[in-house]
């Protein structure tokens, strides 16, 4: 497969998640609008039209639909058009949501920055929006735009958090939680679609060094999805990281035991699972240490449900999914042909859907009853305004780590984002997180992940 030019691998987004771009981010033409923001690059009626498009759930099978890389030119073009059919509408929907915030809140420079980033990204994609991508040169240009989009929105969460913290006098905590729940769930889907195409593009590049290419793209990966993800192995990785933090902060290193079905595998997005597991282990380790009960190991039980036909689970997860979790099914232009059929694109990928439940049990004394109702709320009062640093350090560093779906947060205590953001990642594909606390004894957390079973 010949390409007119290739997009360079620039670094890692999150942990082990590649992102690419062909020019430095500083070359992007960001606008420094003051509120009310200028909409010269994106007309109001265009935003309204896109934001009013019908929506449908995104499934993991949708992300697998283009097949295993390296992709043919036809499949790569289909992947680009699939991303283009969804992302502009999602950006428009978030622009509308930001505009609906109280005037004084959107006037905050941090929140205005996020608004401008979304307008910039949408204006970048609009030239492609009325037509299909039909040549490899257009695909490369579009992939370049996707790489810029991923990089531009990397720090959305910490910037929004700082903005809402500064505006806490003007907007209620309930309104902030509602906005962030919708915004972060929408962000998960947008980034997944973009990163999946970027990863498929990179894995489909011809390489003079076949060995290096094989090492860069493991055979069990289809884009950002690990088709043979082993939760037990990931839990051990997260345990090592959290234990090191715990030892640095408290001087002790709690133990962890895994039972159940440690050999179970399924297909899922590893950076999502890694973030969730890390947050849950941070809570469990901190609880047992502060309860002076670190001699009692944290018990992790893995239970794998039998595979079920993919279509039935898609129907169930789609019906249970919140409207804010849904993707937009927007067709490009008026006279363009429909996107290729999903089954046709899947080709030899015979998928089934499997749920894996992970129970994390600790003897850390449980959650105080007066705090239990608030564990799913985004906490903007943990730190005072004068605690916020002027530079990129301290609390903002921790928020940056959260925003990248990484696990290198700087404080084991977290910032109040851990559980609600973990639940957003789990629920996005039909999973769940449930907490059962015995005050004075300990806590059981049940994480259910709805993934894809065997992918052949």
From TrEMBL:
Keyword Signal: no
GO terms of biological process kind: regulation of glucose metabolic process
A Pfam cross-reference name: BCDHK_Adom3
Cellular compartments per GO CC: mitochondrial matrix
Compartments reported by the entry: Mitochondrion matrix
EC id: 2.7.11.-
Domain Histidine kinase residue range list: 270-453
GO molecular function: ATP binding; pyruvate dehydrogenase (acetyl-transferring) kinase activity
Highest taxon of the lineage: Eukaryota
Keywords: ATP-binding, Kinase, Mitochondrion, Nucleotide-binding, Phosphoprotein, Transferase, Transit peptide
PROSITE patterns attached to this UniProt entry: HIS_KIN
PANTHER family: [3-METHYL-2-OXOBUTANOATE DEHYDROGENASE [LIPOAMIDE]] KINASE, MITOCHONDRIAL, PYRUVATE DEHYDROGENASE KINASE
Protein name: Protein-serine/threonine kinase
Species whose genome carries this gene: Helicocarpus griseus UAMH5409
């Amino acid at each position: 497969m010949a390409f007119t030019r290739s997009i360079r691998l620039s670094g890692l987004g999150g942990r082990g998640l590649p992102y690419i771009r062909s020019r430095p981010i500083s070359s992007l033409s960001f606008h420094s609008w003051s509120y009310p923001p200028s909409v010269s690059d994106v007309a109001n009626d265009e935003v309204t039209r896109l934001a009013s498009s019908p929506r449908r759930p995104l499934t993991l099978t949708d992300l697998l639909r283009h097949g295993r890389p390296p992709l043919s030119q036809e499949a790569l073009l289909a992947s680009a058009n699939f991303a283009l059919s969804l992302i502009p509408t999602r950006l428009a929907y978030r622009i509308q949501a930001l505009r609906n915030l109280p005037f004084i809140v959107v006037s905050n420079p941090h929140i205005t920055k996020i608004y401008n980033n979304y307008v910039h990204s949408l204006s970048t994609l609009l030239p492609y929006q009325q037509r299909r991508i039909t040549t490899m040169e257009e695909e490369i240009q579009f992939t370049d735009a996707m790489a810029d989009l991923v990089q531009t929105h990397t720090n959305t969460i910490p910037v929004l958090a700082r903005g809402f913290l500064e505006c806490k006098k003007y907007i209620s905590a309930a309104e902030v939680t509602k906005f962030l729940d919708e915004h972060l769930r929408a962000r998960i889907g947008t980034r997944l679609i973009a990163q999946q195409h970027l990863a498929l593009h990179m894995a489909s590049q011809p390489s003079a060094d076949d060995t290096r290419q094989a090492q860069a793209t493991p055979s069990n990966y289809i884009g950002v999805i690990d088709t043979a993800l082993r939760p037990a192995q990931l839990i051990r990785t997260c345990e090592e990281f959290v234990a090191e933090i715990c030892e640095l902060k408290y001087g002790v290193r709690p133990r962890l035991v895994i039972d159940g079905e440690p050999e179970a595998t399924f297909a899922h997005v590893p950076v999502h699972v890694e973030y969730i597991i890390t947050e849950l282990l941070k809570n469990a380790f901190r609880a047992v240490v502060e309860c002076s009960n670190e001699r009692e190991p944290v018990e992790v039980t893995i239970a794998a449900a039998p595979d079920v036909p993919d279509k039935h689970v898609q129907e169930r997860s789609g019906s249970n999914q919140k409207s804010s979790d849904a993707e937009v099914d927007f067709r490009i232009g008026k006279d363009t042909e429909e996107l290729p059929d999903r089954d046709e694109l899947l080709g030899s990928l015979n998928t089934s859907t499997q749920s894996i439940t992970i129970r994390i049990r600790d003897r850390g004394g449980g959650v105080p009853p007066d705090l239990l109702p608030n564990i799913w709320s985004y906490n903007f009062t943990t730190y005072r305004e004068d605690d916020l640093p002027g530079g990129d350090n301290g609390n903002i560093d921790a928020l940056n780590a959260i925003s990248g779906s990484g696990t290198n947060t700087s404080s084991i205590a977290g910032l109040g984002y851990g559980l609600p953001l973990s639940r957003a990642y789990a629920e996005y594909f039909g999973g769940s997180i449930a907490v059962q606390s015995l005050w004075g004894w300990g806590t059981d957390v049940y994480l259910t992940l709805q993934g894809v079973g065997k992918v052949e």
